[in-house]
């Protein structure tokens, strides 16, 4: 060997060795459905709800749609900041929230207005949130965390909240809402893995609306589904037709039940964002109108209306009246938001620490005095230049 | 020379440098098809193709970490982080890998790469879209941090950043992305990293700033009628001590203006530099005009946060009259 290090052979493949590779091609991931796009109903799967509850579900679908339409218009008139609509995802939003209990905690991602309203947030506060009013992030009166604007960042907190629920012996679950884009973040993978190891009552609810801004799902991940990612972490996965409100309800109900038994679940709700990503996005740059239209045929509200009609429940729902009712609520909420008391600059400084640090207290006092002495500041503060 | 906005100048630099060097790659969320959320990468996909201009998954850690790996393989990655508020997950990659790969491998492997990111408040966006954490990045040994305030500098500094043999964080002041235009040299144009610019000469006070805050600073100075010298640092790491100190020695007074929170902000580094090497020239205490020690407020209160011309003017007056 002459002191030479041992040599190794050039890499070579022995196909006869029978090494087996796990492949997603070997995996069958079903998509749970109750009502097909054509309106056919799998009767055995229809959830056990009263007629009044079936009608309620419809009200919530209409409410989500109307809220989005009106909020988008308000934004256009300069009365809201950037707004993220859930258009197309109504069933996914409403069906999931309908399966939760008030004690559960929701970690929102931003598009699920109806879920937050159903969970107890007031419509006024939701509008104030989109107006960028700090107070609204309290989500007063509801077990709702602040919206996770940093995508994916809520996931480890969902796990921690669920852990706390388990330690405290609560009969509740923590539910993280997020999009397919969020499943590419490190926080998602660490959060789900951790939940799996701990065995805590967490439900990770992904609304796979096919896009993360301009990126289609096929480029977000090489995996065929989001649901299959659950297996890598030893938690359960469910894939559901997100435009089928009853199927979503089933999926979330079973996920919630399992989670309460200490088995976290990753739910993938397959749906489609029919609108722009937000009011500042231009979707024509990255997708074809035909594609958007093809999803109109799978419209969640229409599909559910067919179901109700088949059960003769639609006659009891005066559609025009529901819309009118929601419009009225919205008008009242806008008026209440407009009436929200004017806040002064102290708002910036409070709630950072329980006791402001001496430096912070000094800065606040200094600023108050400065604003008093310099009325011209208003001119600058109110000039609304954009970048 | 075309008149460009900052965002156009960034786009111009990217086009020019990608055409000049086919090792350059641009990737990040929404940079290809959509041309970036601010359109800074518009047209690159059409000009240079999918192999060199790529949309990526929503993965700040992987975007920055992969850039390090690519850079060690002879490529010149230029990545975009949509808003600097989403850079923190990737801070680990900057600190643990990008900034120290040369040092750790004793020069065998290096990471010539650029992380571009719009920073700062003032565009009425959502939470986490308004951060100005430049001091945190300037505190990382091995990482350079450049922050242009004008279109011509944006092109010149970005070009230098792309050609730089080390990792550079390039922070773009989105508040002034489109608010003014100036002539930007066609084709190749560089502004060296680590060289401040004297925007305005004066004898009475040195006002130091960078990025988005240059504009309210200049506005305040113009209105005051004080003979102020205005220094635009342009790169905070490396810091151009010579220009800074020469100016303070000349004027004997110094005011620092930045948007980020005061405590631990980069203004403290400027003040300490002046205290160390020009203290005896000072005729007045150095003043800092900064954001407050709080997260940037949401949009309804946002404009109360950054220094406005009246605040800057008051501090300059106080310093001059001391
Ligand atoms: C960590 C982080 N990176 C980037 C962004 C900018 N951004 C906002 S929403 C979004 C896409 C999110 O896609 P997805 O998670 O699928 O949710 P969707 O918007 O489709 O509901 C991006 C890239 C962000 N908010 N947070």
Structure explained in plain terms:
The complex is a heterodimer of chains A (387) and B (322). Chain A is 42% helix and 8% strand. Chain A is α/β, with parallel strands linked by helices and 387 residues long. Chain A has a five-stranded parallel beta sheet with strand order 1-2-3-7-6, with helices on both faces. In chain A, strands 4-5 form a two-stranded antiparallel ribbon. Chain A starts with 50 loop residues before the first helix and ends in a 5-residue tail after the last helix. The mean pLDDT of chain A is 95. In chain B, 34% of the residues lie in helices and 19% in strands. Chain B starts with a strand and ends with a helix. In chain B, helix 2 links the parallel strand 2 (24-28) and strand 3. In chain B, the strands form three sheets. Chain B has a seven-stranded mixed beta sheet with strand order 3-2-4-5-7-6-12, with helices on both faces. Chain B has a five-stranded mixed beta sheet with strand order 9-11-10-13-14, with helices on both faces. A two-stranded antiparallel ribbon of chain B has the order 1-8. Chain B is built from eleven helices and 14 strands. Chain B is of the alpha/beta class and 322 residues long. Classes of the chains: A alpha/beta (387), B alpha/beta (322).
Mean pLDDT across all amino acids of chain B: 97
Characterize the main sheet of chain A.
Answer: 5 strands, parallel
Total of DSSP H or I helical runs spanning 4+ residues of chain B: 11
Q: What's the count of strands of chain B?
A: 14
Strand content of chain A: 5-15%
Distance between the ends of chain A: 69 Å
Please tell me the overall pLDDT of chain A. Answer: 95
Structural class of chain A: alpha/beta
By DSSP (H or I, 4+ residues per run), the number of helices of chain A equals 14
Question: H/E series of chain B, N to C?
Answer: EHEHEHEHHEHEHEEEEHEEHEHEH
The profile of the biggest β sheet of chain B is: 7 strands, mixed
Q: In terms of quaternary structure, what is this?
A: heterodimer
Strand order of the largest sheet of chain B: 3-2-4-5-7-6-12
Give the overall form of chain B.
globular
Rg of chain A, Cα atoms, Å:
24 Å
Organism (chain A): Halogeometricum salsisoli
Protein name (chain A): Pyruvate dehydrogenase (Acetyl-transferring) E1 component subunit alpha
Keywords (chain A): Oxidoreductase, Pyruvate
InterPro entries (chain A): Alpha-ketoacid_DH_E1_comp, DH_E1, PdhA/BkdA, THDP-binding
């Amino acid at each position: 060997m002459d002191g030479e290090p041992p040599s190794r052979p050039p890499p070579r493949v022995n196909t006869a060795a029978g090494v087996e590779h796990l492949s997603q091609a070997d995996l069958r991931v079903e998509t749970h459905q109750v009502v097909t796009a054509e309106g056919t109903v799998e009767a055995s799967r229809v959830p056990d709800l009263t007629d009044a509850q079936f009608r309620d579900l419809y009200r919530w679908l209409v409410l989500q749609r109307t809220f989005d339409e009106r909020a988008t218009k308000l934004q256009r008139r300069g009365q809201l900041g950037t707004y993220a609509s859930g258009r197309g995802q109504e069933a996914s939003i409403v069906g999931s929230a309908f399966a939760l209990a008030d004690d559960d905690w929701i970690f929102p991602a931003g598009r699920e207005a109806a879920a937050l309203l159903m969970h107890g947030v007031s419509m006024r506060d939701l509008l104030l949130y989109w107006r960028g009013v700090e107070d609204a992030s309290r989500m007063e009166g509801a077990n709702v965390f602040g919206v996770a604007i940093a995508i994916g960042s809520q996931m480890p907190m969902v796990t921690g909240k669920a852990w706390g629920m388990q330690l405290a012996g609560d009969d509740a679950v923590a539910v993280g809402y997020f999009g397919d884009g969020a499943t590419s973040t490190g926080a998602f993978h660490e959060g789900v893995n951790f939940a799996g190891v701990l065995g805590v009552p967490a439900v990770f609810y992904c609304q796979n609306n096919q896009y993360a801004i301009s990126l289609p799902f096929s480029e977000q991940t090489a995996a065929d589904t989001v649901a299959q990612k659950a297996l890598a972490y030893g938690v359960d996965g469910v894939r559901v037709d997100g435009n089928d409100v009853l199927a979503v309800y089933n999926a979330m109900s079973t996920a919630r039940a399992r989670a309460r038994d200490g088995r976290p679940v990753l739910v993938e709700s397959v749906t489609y964002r029919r609108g722009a990503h937000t009011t500042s996005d231009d979707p024509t740059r990255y997708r074809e109108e035909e594609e958007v239209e093809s999803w109109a045929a799978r419209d969640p509200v229409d599909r559910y209306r067919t179901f109700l009609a088949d059960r003769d429940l639609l006659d009891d729902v005066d559609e025009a009246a529901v819309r009118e009712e929601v419009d009225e609520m919205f008008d009242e909420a806008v008026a209440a938001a407009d009436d929200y008391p004017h806040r002064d600059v102290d708002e910036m400084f409070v709630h950072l620490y329980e006791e402001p640090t001496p430096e912070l207290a000094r800065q606040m006092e200094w600023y108050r005095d400065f604003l008093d002495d310099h009325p011209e500041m208003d001119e600058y503060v109110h000039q609304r230049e954009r970048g | 020379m075309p008149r460009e906005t900052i965002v156009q100048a960034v786009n111009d630099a990217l086009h020019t440098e990608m055409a000049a060097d086919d090792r350059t790659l641009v990737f990040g969320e929404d940079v290809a098809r959509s041309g970036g959320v601010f359109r800074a990468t518009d047209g690159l996909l059409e000009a240079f193709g999918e192999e060199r201009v790529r949309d990526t998954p929503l993965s700040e850690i992987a975007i920055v970490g992969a850039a390090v790996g690519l850079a060690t393989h002879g490529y010149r990655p230029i990545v975009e982080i949509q808003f600097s508020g989403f850079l923190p997950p990737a801070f680990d990659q900057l600190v643990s890998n990008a900034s120290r790969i040369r040092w750790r491998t004793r020069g065998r492997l290096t990471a010539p790469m650029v992380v571009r990111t719009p920073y700062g408040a003032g565009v009425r966006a959502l939470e986490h879209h308004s951060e100005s954490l430049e001091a945190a990045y300037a505190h990382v040994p091995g990482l350079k941090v450049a922050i242009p305030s004008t279109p011509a500098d944006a092109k010149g500094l970005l070009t230098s950043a792309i050609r730089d043999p080390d990792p550079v964080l390039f922070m773009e002041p989105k508040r002034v992305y489109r608010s003014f235009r100036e002539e930007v040299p066609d084709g190749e144009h560089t502004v060296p990293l680590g060289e401040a610019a004297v925007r305005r000469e004066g004898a009475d006070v040195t006002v130091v700033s960078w990025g988005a805050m240059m504009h309210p600073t200049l506005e305040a100075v113009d209105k005051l009628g004080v003979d102020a010298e205005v220094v635009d640092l342009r790169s905070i790491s490396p810091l151009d001590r010579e220009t800074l100190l020469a100016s303070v020695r000349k004027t004997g007074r110094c005011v620092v203006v930045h948007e980020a929170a005061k405590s631990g902000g980069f203004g403290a580094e400027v003040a300490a530099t002046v205290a160390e090497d020009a203290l005896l020239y000072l005729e007045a205490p150095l003043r800092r005009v900064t954001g407050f020690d709080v997260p940037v407020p949401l949009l309804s209160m946002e404009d109360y946060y950054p220094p406005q011309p009246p605040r800057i003017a008051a501090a300059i007056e106080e310093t001059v009259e001391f």
